[in-house]
Design a protein that fits this description.
Blueprint lengths: L5 H23 L7 H7 L2 E5 L5 H17 L5 E5 L7 H17 L6 E6 L24 E6 H9 L6 H13 L1 H11 L2
Parallel strand pairs: 1-2
Antiparallel strand pairs: 2-4, 3-4
């Protein structure tokens, strides 16, 4: 496997920085995920920017990332960022479905789960321009690889975890789409 050229390497580093900005300036700042602050402060989030476009290569990289997490318990979670190749939301949703099935096939059921984010994320039944969609919009298509044990512990220590999505949607609707469009643009500074 060849190393990326310097321009590609710079683009990958920028995608990682944009994603870090998103985590800090959107997810953490506005408490979209009440568990993010602790992991940001502990520096236990891994940002894996994948320079692959073909489905098979991305899936292989996903399993390699899970294996990395297996052998690095000090890393709590990975944001698996795909800056190119899955810009189309429906292609991305196909990837999410196949990736979820692959985790099951690779005996990762109960070990890891995936959360999904995309610049054009749209909840089923929501209009594309609905502010609610911004709770799952990110600068790039991103699979969040979550340790299930950690998620169970976090949810057990949180009063009414079922209210998190509803609270986020209400917040997004109060702020409006333009607010979030500007936030996401700012993440790419």
């Amino acid at each position: 496997m060849t190393a990326p050229d310097s321009d590609t390497q710079k683009e990958l580093e920028m995608a990682a920085q944009h994603t870090k900005n998103w985590v800090k300036d959107v997810i953490m700042k506005y408490n979209i995920c009440p568990f993010a602050r602790q992991e940001v402060e502990r520096q236990t989030i891994r940002y894996a920017v994948i320079d692959k476009r073909k489905l098979a290569e991305v899936l292989e990289a996903l399993i390699v990332e899970c294996q990395f997490l297996d052998s690095h318990p000090e890393v709590e979670t990975t944001l698996f960022v795909l800056p190119t190749g899955f810009e189309g939301f429906y292609d991305y949703l196909d990837l999410v479905d196949i990736a979820t099935d692959l985790l099951l096939e690779q005996d990762y059921e109960g070990v890891y789960q995936l959360a999904s984010f995309h610049p054009d994320y749209c909840f089923d039944g929501e209009p594309q321009d609905s502010a609610a969609n911004f709770t799952n919009r990110a600068p790039y298509p991103t699979l969040h690889i979550i340790r299930e044990v950690s998620m169970e512990k976090a949810l057990a220590s949180f009063d009414d975890p079922e209210s998190i999505p509803e609270r986020n949607i209400a917040f997004a609707e109060r702020k409006g789409s333009e607010f979030f469009i500007k936030l996401l643009q700012h993440c790419k500074r």
